[in-house]
UniProtKB/TrEMBL annotation:
<protein>
    <submittedName>
        <fullName>Transposon Ty3-G Gag-Pol polyprotein</fullName>
    </submittedName>
</protein>
<keyword id="KW-0808">Transferase</keyword>
<dbReference type="InterPro" id="IPR043128">
    <property type="entry name" value="Rev_trsase/Diguanyl_cyclase"/>
</dbReference>
<dbReference type="GO" id="GO:0008233">
    <property type="term" value="F:peptidase activity"/>
</dbReference>
<dbReference type="GO" id="GO:0006508">
    <property type="term" value="P:proteolysis"/>
</dbReference>
<keyword id="KW-0695">RNA-directed DNA polymerase</keyword>
<keyword id="KW-0548">Nucleotidyltransferase</keyword>
<dbReference type="InterPro" id="IPR043502">
    <property type="entry name" value="DNA/RNA_pol_sf"/>
</dbReference>
<dbReference type="Pfam" id="PF00078">
    <property type="entry name" value="RVT_1"/>
</dbReference>
<keyword id="KW-0378">Hydrolase</keyword>
<keyword id="KW-0540">Nuclease</keyword>
<keyword id="KW-0255">Endonuclease</keyword>
<dbReference type="InterPro" id="IPR053134">
    <property type="entry name" value="RNA-dir_DNA_polymerase"/>
</dbReference>
<dbReference type="GO" id="GO:0004519">
    <property type="term" value="F:endonuclease activity"/>
</dbReference>
<feature type="domain" description="Reverse transcriptase">
    <location>
        <begin position="46"/>
        <end position="225"/>
    </location>
</feature>
<keyword id="KW-0645">Protease</keyword>
<dbReference type="InterPro" id="IPR000477">
    <property type="entry name" value="RT_dom"/>
</dbReference>
Length: 265
């Protein structure tokens, strides 16, 4: 996959000069998990997203977490590396504002990029800092992986650059959530043509199987938006109902945030 050209966007870590590299010791995995890890490594190598590396200064472990339907997700624990990086303060849109501006539209299209984060290259100087260890070898990312501190900010910066002429008019973007909105079907066709032109211009690829084109309603940033307005998503209600009682200030703030979001409706 070609992906975004480095002159348009690349992910830079900007590690603090005084930070001391940390090499995590390899974790032990059950043989079943080792096979899951190796399958994921093979996919990433075949796609050209990672490469083998030797003698890295930074080294992180992989983590295998359960997904729905008995499947597994392989992640990298970049806690140490993230602690050594400054926060990218690029602004994210206010969710309430873009959800409000999306509701009441006659026609919507929800777009999903194909391995969106992996379409953005890593800065060559920072590739080996993303090194991780598996039972079968050492690898680093050639593209921006999930789990890095400022990956969301880098993605939002790229989306803002790509869709700048359309944001607030016919497009709303929150990191990797993209919606095209129009009052009429005729307008929507024109708006989609504008979006596709920009996607081709910047070599951003979509995942058609996860896109929804020309619908009257859909889920956007956790809310159900339609021409009628905004409705609470059943997933949001379920998340609140299943939240255990808060045990500390941080958990209380998280629960309060969920309740405030529902209270808007």
């Amino acid at each position: 996959m070609k992906g975004i050209h480095p002159s348009i966007a690349s992910h830079k870590l900007n590690v603090f000069p005084a930070a001391r590299p940390i090499r995590q010791k390899i974790r032990r995995f059950h043989p079943d998990r080792q096979r899951v890890i190796q399958d994921e490594i093979n996919k990433l190598l075949e796609a050209g997203f990672i490469r083998e590396v030797s003698y890295p200064d930074w080294l992180a472990n992989v983590v295998v977490v359960p997904k729905k339907e008995g499947k597994w997700r392989v992640c990298v624990d970049y806690t140490n590396l993230n602690n050594a990086c400054p926060k990218d303060s690029f602004p994210l849109p206010r969710i309430d504002q873009i959800v409000d501006s999306t509701s009441g539209q006659g026609m919507l299209s929800f777009l999903d990029a194909f391995s969106g984060y992996h379409q953005i290259p890593m800065s060559p100087d920072d590739e080996e800092k993303t090194a991780f260890i598996t039972p079968h070898g050492l690898y680093c990312y050639k593209v921006m992986p999930f789990g890095l501190k400022n990956a969301g900010a880098t993605y939002q910066r790229l989306m803002t650059k790509i869709f700048k002429p359309l944001i607030g008019r016919s497009v709303e973007v929150y990191i990797d959530d993209i919606v095209v909105k129009s009052k009429t079907r005729e307008q929507h066709i024109l708006h989609l043509q504008e979006v596709f032109y920009l996607l081709r211009k910047y070599d951003m690829k979509l995942n058609p199987s996860k896109c929804a084109f020309g619908v009257s309603a859909g889920k956007f940033l956790g809310f159900m938006v339609s021409q009628r307005g905004i409705e609470v998503s059943p997933d949001q209600v379920k998340a609140v109902m299943e939240t255990p009682p808060p045990r500390n200030k941080k958990e209380l703030q998280r629960l309060t945030g969920k309740l405030v979001a529902l209270g808007r409706l």
